[in-house]
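Throughout our pipeline, every protein is held as a single compact record rather than as scattered files. Such a record has a labelled line for the sequence and another for the backbone structure tokens. This encoding replaces a full spatial description with a residue-level series of whole-number codes. For reference, a complete record is included directly beneath this paragraph.
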Amino acid sequence: MMPPGVTCPAGARSAGRERVHTPDGPRRAPAARAYGGAVRRLVGVLLTLALLAVAAVVLDRVALALAEREVASRLSDYVDVQGDPDVRISGFPFLTQVLAREVDDVRVTAPAAASGGVQLADVDVRAHDVGLTQPPTAAELELTGTLPQPALQELLDARGLDLAVDTGTDGLRLATELLGQNLEVLTEPEVTDTGGLQLRTVSLTLGGTQVDAASLAPLLGDALLTFDVALPDLPLGLSLAAARPQDDGVRLTLIGADVVLAG
């Protein structure tokens, strides 16, 4: 029998009811309270996991930033870097790579760098599969940089060649005097079989008239057919792989395999 003043709505006796009516008003059933508590606990777990994930990402990025700074500071062990180098270590997460003792890809760019007395501009270094065990070793390393026109002129002067060099995308023009007339030699840079840098003659212009280089060979020998450019010792034991003319000099590509990066 229901107490006076209390009504029982239809369906209130069914199982799983959400509210129970009492003289003090409706209240949640025990099942609803249990459900709400479970939801709150689940939300708490998800928030905790989210915070841990954020903390892990922050820690990973901090470790990455420190590693990039360390790489930048060690560049001076190999080359004289001018300007602020920019270091980028690819791959995520970084800490997983550290635990695996190998970094996928490291890229370093700098406005200029000097090695062996020769300065390269617009330097770009890429190292792949860098092992972090001692000594640190890159499975592959590629360095590209521009040998500026003034530096190229100095290298030609060091060979005792009385030539004025002018660089362009179509090649390198070497100017001198022959038989009392102005001689201009258009050359292309190329890599020799032994890994040296050579300027190969494409055309000759003597006194404003283009002449066949072979016709002057009996008079001058091979002196005007090829010009060897003596490069200093390359850093990290790298080898010259390519040379491309451009307006401000010659773009050089140096490569190496299993390059030891220890200072």
Observations:
- The mean pLDDT is 75.
- The CA atoms of residues 37 and 43 lie 10 Å apart.
